[in-house]
Design a protein that fits this description.
14% of the residues are buried. The mean pLDDT is 91. The protein contains four helices and three strands; from the N terminus they run H-H-H-E-E-H-E. It has a three-stranded mixed beta sheet with strand order 2-1-3. Helix 1 runs antiparallel to helix 2. With 235 residues, it is mostly helical.
């Protein structure tokens, strides 16, 4: 392989490497946006949980109010019945029912107070979480806008990089380009690496004496007998 062909292969490799880097960055953008959207969804879910807790407590309060109201109606009925009975034992029985129901009301009112305190705490928790969410969402949305802009710029950069790669490919002789493409299709970059101290610059393993000699001559494409990369002598 003549020196000029090596130069052209190295130019192609440099442009190809830049293209790959830009394409990887472009592919990463949707993942980054999805991750941020996932955080927004999680924070909104936390807000909904706080709201649900608050609503459940409000429902408990209403249920207790209904039970207290029902018990108070019972007491009113018992008092009406007391005014109508003639027998002392019937009067005493109603008095017992009134006392029992009043005790029930007292217990319900204690529960209601506890629930009302919990409601106040839930309201504060919800308000704080909502304020934090709005602040966080503003930050998240700003990051997403920045990523969208980056995606737009990367699309342009990738297209330009692809064009420069296409131009560089036209300069490389077909047989050498075929070898380049075969190696480039495998995981691992770069394709062309120097031989230094009898070791491949790609896999860092020792190359054979014949490979080292051919790499020095630069008369044809020489590949590492370990990893298959194109090798050239590093003068």
């Amino acid at each position: 392989m003549v020196a000029i062909s090596l130069d052209k292969l190295l130019v192609l490799q440099e442009r190809d490497s830049k293209r790959l880097t830009l394409e990887q960055q472009l592919k990463a953008v949707p993942r980054e946006i999805a991750a941020i959207e996932g955080r927004i969804a999680a924070e909104k879910a936390a807000i909904e949980t706080a709201k649900t807790e608050w609503r459940e407590l409000e429902s408990q309060k209403k249920q207790l109010e209904m039970e207290i109201g029902s018990a108070e109606e019972k007491i009113a009925r018992y008092r009406t019945q007391q005014s109508q009975v003639r027998k002392n034992d019937e009067y005493q029985a109603l008095t017992h029912e009134i006392d029992t129901t009043q005790a029930t009301i007292g217990a319900l009112e204690e529960k209601e107070i506890a629930v009302m305190i919990s409601i106040d705490e839930a309201k504060k928790k919800f308000a704080a979480a909502e304020a934090e969410l709005k602040q966080n969402i503003n930050g998240h949305e700003a990051k997403i806008r920045t990523l969208r802009e980056r995606e737009t710029h990367l699309l342009t950069d990738v297209k330009a990089a692809q064009d420069t790669v296409a131009a560089a490919r036209l300069e490389v002789p077909a047989p050498q380009l075929k070898i380049y493409d075969r190696i480039a299709s495998k995981p691992g970059h770069p394709v062309c690496v120097p031989v230094t101290a009898a070791r491949c610059g790609g896999c860092h393993l020792k190359v054979s004496a014949n490979v080292e000699m051919e790499a020095r001559k630069l008369e044809e494409v020489t590949t590492c007998d370990q990893c298959g990369r194109v090798v050239y002598w590093a003068s």
